[in-house]
Amino acid sequence: MAPTTKSKSTTKMSATGTETNKTVHSPLLTYFSMISLLTLCPPFVILLWYTMVHADGSVIETWNYLRQHGLQGFMNIWPRPTVVAWKIIACYAAFEAALQLLLPGKRVEGPISPAGNRPIYKANGVAAYVVTIITYLGLWWFGIFNPTVVYDHLGEIYSALIFGSFIFCIFLYIKGHLAPSSTDSGSCGNLIIDFYWGMELYPRIGKNFDIKVFTNCRFGMMSWAVIALTYCIKQYEANGRVSDSMLVNTILMLVYVSKFFWWEDGYWNTMDIAHDRAGFYICWGCLVWVPSIYTSPGMYLVNHPVHLGTQLALYILVAGILCIYINYDCDRQRQEFRRTNGKCLVWGKAPSKIVASYTTSSGETKTSLLLTSGWWGLSRHFHYVPEILSAFFWTVPALFNHFLPYFYVLFLTILLLDRAKRDDDRCRSKYGKFWKLYCEKVPYRVIPGIY
Ligand code: NDP
């Protein structure tokens, strides 16, 4: 894997965030949401784990406990990071880093960055995914390591991840100041914004180790599959069987993560990688929020083995797989359209498109193609609809006794509606009149005919 190619100027940031976020919210709202997320997300992870594992999944039970015992009660339930937890995290992180560096993969060029660089990646995600899953199941099968240890130390692991990832984000902040990897970096002069949104778009260690590929894909997304399997195995070891609800949940999550790694080089063209810098928002999110919150419907099912019956289980499974497929097909369609420079078929026909020009931060004029047919002609962010529905379908096996398993669906809906607005605003400032034309041709932002 080669390093990014460099251009001359360093990207400037605005007072309200990275380039990508500068026009979206007022400065006051931006500061308020940043400080809120920085302070509230860590305790929320612990409260969610505590409620799922020790309070029967009941928010009311946790609320009553906190009302009775106050802050001291909360401190008592916050698990301290233990040596076992640190060991599990260190082994997993080292294993994933080694796979990222050592497994072969084809050379892939990322999209041109705002500063005019083109990052180069090694596409070995599928191999890393297959090796990880086989190794994890193999360790269990041959009695070398029992995944129930992970479940039994889950609170300590999340606690260690919260602190460890915070320190990692401080490292990213210092690196961004002292030794940025490319010209896609820079400070807005405000410590909190720099820490929260990040300093660098493509930070690397040495020439080959891409930090965002590690945090987002190989640690975050991979942990989703590993932890989903852990929940399934824990239920099996505790009850001697796996409920159909847990099976549907685990299969859908594994299909989703498999799809992610199948399409990983497409992910390197999305906002997370191509626009959002490496800071607390994206890196802490992938290192802590993904393994804890994204996997939480499965965490609930461990102690609530709902029996769905074969027919209902199959309906949910098929509906979930269909949504994951549609989400994949939306991403594939856009990627294929851009890769072939519009010379492909979209739903069996030549695509309709807008040729949009824009100026990079170094002053160069470039062109991009905007697809206006297929999924991308239904609404400007139609792919978020099947994304949210997939999450609903792997949660609904929990049925409706408690609200908490649905927290991820709710969170994802808010995240993606906000993201659609953020992306629209960024594209409007990037493409100007061309984006206006796209909005006239495709008037709805997410849900055709409604929003
Ligand atoms: P996209 O992959 O949709 O990327 C948006 C970018 O695509 C825009 O910034 C623009 O970039 C380009 N673009 C926009 N419209 C068009 C068009 N009509 N034709 C061609 N290119 C266009 O964004 P996301 O990163 O949000 O989504 C990627 C995937 O990740 C989706 O499947 C989404 O559901 C999923 N996702 C999942 C999340 C989760 O937490 N589970 C969170 C976020 C996303 P450019 O500057 O190149 O023109």
Task: For the structure shown, list the relevant keywords.
451 residues, binds NADPH dihydro-nicotinamide-adenine-dinucleotide phosphate, mainly alpha, two-stranded antiparallel sheet, disordered N terminus, two-stranded antiparallel ribbon
As a whole number of angstroms, the C-alpha radius of gyration is: 22 Å
Distance between the amino and carboxyl termini = 42 Å
What share of residues is helical? 55-70%
Mean pLDDT, to the nearest integer, reads 92
The ordered H/E elements are HHHEEHHHHEEHHHHHHHEEHHHH
Strand content of the residues, in percent? 5-15%
Strand arrangement, major sheet? 1-2
Largest sheet: 2 strands, antiparallel
Find the structural class using helix and strand composition: mainly alpha
Ligands, ions, cofactors: NADPH dihydro-nicotinamide-adenine-dinucleotide phosphate
Q: Would you mind describing this structure in some detail?
A:
It is found in: Endoplasmic reticulum membrane. The chain crosses the membrane at residues 28-50, 84-105, 126-145, 157-174, 246-263, 278-300, 312-328, 391-417. This protein has 451 residues and is mostly helical. Helix content is 62%, strand content 6%. It is built from 18 helices and six strands. It has helices at residues 27-54, 59-77, 83-102, 125-141, 148-152, 154-178, 191-197, 211-239, 244-262, 264-267, 271-274, 280-294, 296-302, 310-339, 375-378, 384-395, 407-431, 433-441, and strands spanning 106-109, 120-123, 204-205, 209-210, 353-359, 365-371. The strands form three sheets. The protein has a two-stranded antiparallel sheet. Strands 3-4 form a two-stranded antiparallel sheet. A hairpin with a 5-residue loop joins strand 5 (353-359) and strand 6 (365-371).
